[in-house]
Amino acid sequence: AQALVDKVTDPTTKAALQADVDKAQQLLNSSVLAIPQLNPLTEAGTVLSGKLDVSKYNPGTIRISINNAPATIVAVDANGNFSYSIGNRKVGDVISVDYKDTKGQYNAATKASITVTSVSSNVTINKMTENDDTVTGKAAPNAKVRYVVNGQAVNVGYADANGNYSMYIGKQKVGTVVGVEAFDPSTNQYKTAVTTTVIAVNVTIQAMTNATDTVSGTAPANAKLRFLINGVAVNVGTADASGNYSKYVGTQLVGTTVAVEMMNPETGKYELAKTTTVTGAPKSVNYTVAALTTDNDTLTGTAPANAKLRFSINGNLVSVITADASGNYSKFIGKQKDGTVVSVELLNENTNQYTAAQAVTVTTGTGNATLAPVINTITEGQGVVTGTVPTSVTTVRVWVNGVAQTMVSATNGNFTWTKANLKAGDTVKVDYKDATGTWISAEKVVTK
User: Fold this and answer.
1) Domain named Bacterial Ig: which ranges (predicted)?
2) What is the pLDDT of residues 245-258, one digit of tens each?
């Protein structure tokens, strides 16, 4: 189009046509020419880099100028990336890039510039509290930095490729000034430190013993809190309008670490505030188990106040018991047979494990003798067996000379059984089964 316009000889016509060509070229440039994007550069940096959108047009090369003086031309790769080892530049130097447009001319529309900044101006330091033991922040990528505490250098390190730095310095007292100094290669000196002052967390936690079941303390009014036991979160809560908080966590073993974290409203994350270690004397593990007979239906004994115990019958776990505030416990277990083994274990609050069992063996109670059947005198030839048993018994069993004969009904505790051929010297036994399943018996010898 430009070549055709150049051939036109009429000045008025040529001027109008040239205006149209210029307008078309401008529209073309704006649609295909992208502005380069330059990465920041500090006085410590030695490489200039950037990227160009080459989706519509790739010039192949790009020109780099320093303080408006062309310095070099570098290649632009297929992805639009370019870089140049520019060496250390002074603060305030202006670095610019541009490239040739589709007509092969350097075009002002393609120019982009950055100004070299101070190393220290690119250094930031994150705030620190009395709980923090590591200083963190940002600097120029790969920058060398020195860490200072109250003006004294304590360590040296480097920022990573993304400009992040981190260094352990231990927990510091409230009011301590922690700083980071960036190294300036142009002067071979460290820049003035960027600093932060260690602040208090403004959260307290009360001391806890192994008799305490609630964590409490103070925090900023209405602060959101999270509670941890040995590093594991167990509950959340909120301080009240006066800044007080309390949360039930149960009694803990000596040596347990109880912590409270406070929500940071800026990050939306919980941050460690305060911890306490549970103290206290070892808790008693002394307990007793009362003896049991076939007369008893309740397991009893003593233990530390409010202690938890569990009991088994003949090795089979039955239930859990809690001692009262006076240290006494009782549990209905029903009457047990002679020889039954009842064992009790105490939950040791020092280890949170059950102790070895204490066991008792059920013995025959004296009450059984008074409950034995009463057999009246049996006379040879009459063959009548009569007597009494407890009124709660409705059936008895009758034996003759060790041989079971029959089951006989008992009414209001009285029983009668007739056997005509009973002889003098025969032994008659009557028995019944009590509530525990034990047979209670008595014997009578037939007389002449």
Assistant:
1) 123-196
2) 999 999 899 999 99
